Amino acid sequence: MGYSCSYSEIEEESQSLTYLLRRYTGSKAKGHIIEHLNTMEGHICKNKKKLIAKDFPSRHQWFNTEPLSLRKELKDKLVVIDFWTYCCINCLHVLPDLEWLENKYSDEAGIAFVGCHSAKFSNEKESDKVQEAVRKYDVKHPVFNDKEMIFWEQLERNSWPSIAILSPDGVPILFLSGEGHRERINLFLEVAVDFYGDRLDRTPLDLYLEEEKEIEERESKENRLDSLTSEESAALKSNLRFPSKVICIANQALLPYDGNVMIFSDTGNNRVIIADLETNECLDVVGSGKIGFDNGEYENSSFHHPQGICHIFKDEQHYLYVCDSNNHAIRRINLNKKEVATVIGTGKQGNDREGNQNPDVQELSSPWDIVAINKDTLIIAMAGIHQIWALNLKNNKCFNFSGTGAEANLDSDDSLNKCAWSQPSGLSLGVLNEETTEIYVADSESSAIRAIDMKSCTSSRNVVGGDNNPYNLFAYGDKDGVGIRAKLQHPLGVHFVKNKNIVLVTDTYNHKIKIIDPLTDEIHSWLGNGEGGLQDGNLESSQFSEPSGCYSIWTKDISGNDKLTVLIADTNNHCIRTVDYEDGEVTTLELKNIPPARTSFNPSKTKAMEVKCEGGVCYPKFKNKM
């Protein structure tokens, strides 16, 4: 092959190798990798100066480390660069693969892993948001914020996620696009380490992890409570970490709690919290706080980044169904027996687009939200494969309800199988009148709210946001209006308010709560001034930071009048906010007696028991090497 010295030719060679690695395994696969490396080495020797990657721009902000250089700290290493954007579910799927590879290859391997955050949405360009994402998704390798896409363009990337592996000379020797490459990268690195041998610098990198900084920041706040705002103090004392979804249950027969309760996924702490809506007292903690996939009693069970929750009362038992997103499973919490079970999902990410397999073998992909249609049917936002699934509780079988699996904002008038979704992340069932029942969908990557007709179960429609071109996933903004003239930015939550016939939307990356009239498809901003922050107040002065879920409940005020209260999972502020619907006054809840993560919980005790520093908000302090 005659080279003109370009990255596009390396891309072509990489695609050829990827094809061969899909076809062959073992010694044949290794032989093809060696042949590829010899080809790349010959190419490097001839055109080395032109192919060496330019260094990271000096003004980029780094996380988990001090700024790194391809000419200094990363010189003479194999460098695995992950181009990602934290909105993208496919990018999030790559992170566990990288963690697995990081854990496999020791300090002495001469391999460094670096994340290049190249934002899709304007909100994601801000360094404080990237920092929160690094913490939220437990990223342990160095990450830099390529907010101006400089390094992205230098290496001629054009899609998320994307991997580039650089040789010890700093030349790209492999490009990969998409997710699901763990085994191919692993085999490539195994061969490359032997291939380059003594040329590799095996000195480990000094890391200062964001999880350490997070703990230090928390400790600093705890030592200066008097200087915090009332909102900051309430959030700190609540002991939450990136809560994502919230629901409420009104006082019901056989509910094992008195009065109304609120339930939310304490996602970053890998647990579900149940609290009294009137007193804000913690009633139960479901999950040990450790990352895991264990069933059983509350304190012995475990989750991995739980998201959406729904409630069903059936056979005189109250159940919660939970999207255990990083375990790719639906879990069931029996509130009466205080037990956790797995309904469906193996703990492994799947790529099945059809379903209907037995529940013990059915693999799911990042379920993000869930809603009950009746006592026997649940609808699931299967964000990882851009589909909507249904779960039949009579046989616990799960199947594709809507979506081709392609990522788009594509509706259909005659078949839900023809629809295409774009990372659906929020669901809510709304009964508008006798003729109209819809499921509202926060279609996050198309920045739209869409609806499924549940009367016919054959059609979907775009409500607000998005674009006339169903494949344009960049039609976002912050604009009130009707239909596609309105613009949102990566909404993650949606909630239908009965008796009001409105739909609440957490317009996540605009840091706002908005209201839709689903009969006119008009949306207007309700809460939040559009700037990320933590501030109570009225409609115009309140601030949120990437709110991800909301819910409403009708109660009685002290005069016996009906009162509508809205709860908001204010994710990056690590707290739950409450809103009086009539006056729009926002208050940060100070939740009481919620223990720090990884702590035993006894609701009869007012103080948390001994903290086990194994993760979540309670990390041991140490310096890491990579």
From TrEMBL:
Gene3D superfamilies: Glutaredoxin, TolB, C-terminal domain. PROSITE patterns: THIOREDOXIN_2 (PS51352). CDD domains: NHL-2_like. Residues 47-194 form the Thioredoxin domain. This is Thioredoxin domain-containing protein.
